[in-house]
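Here's what a typical entry looks like (Alkyl transferase):
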Amino acid sequence: METGDMLRSTIYGPMMLPPAGHKAGFLALTSMLKYCYELGIKRVSIYSFSIDNFKRRPNEVQYVMDLMLEKIQGSLKEKSIVQKYGARVYFRGNMTLLTKPIRVAAEKAMVATANNTGMMLFICVAYTYTDEIVHAIQESCNNKWVGIQEANGSKAWNQEIRDEEYQMEEKAIIKLRDIEKHMYMDVAPDPDILIQTSGEHRLSNFQL
């Protein structure tokens, strides 16, 4: 059983300022992971930061980035919830949009937890489903183009025959499996349950 946890990065309540909302969101996530662990759920996907969130106020975005770096680094500590539940961490999304310290910390977390056999924790950051689709199509096209160039360069043009041209056309066709293997979430199954911890009733461009 899998659960997709659409954690909105800001949870506002009466008189709650953005920093407090972000911290409340992290606490909600911690509780959700605890419940999933107790229920025996092995795969959890967290929608922690949308690409659209970069449009928020610069100081708020910076606060979230700083908090994210702090929590990623904290996940490597012995008493962290990640270590407690033996979770293997995957970061998924357009990581090039994040700062270098966050990318480095995320990579360290994935390497450090690679041998964990408990819960699989997919953290979607700098992510939207539309961006994931565009990314997968672009990568598929690039791979096909490289393959065509290599094939053309390996033989003389005057030796091409019709059958070879047909085979080349077949190889150039982008199929569903080509796109699937280039999706950010290629290692994760489709979620069975979506939980909006903030109480919102929208998908927010998450795994449509």
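The radius of gyration is 21 Å.

More examples are in the samples folder.
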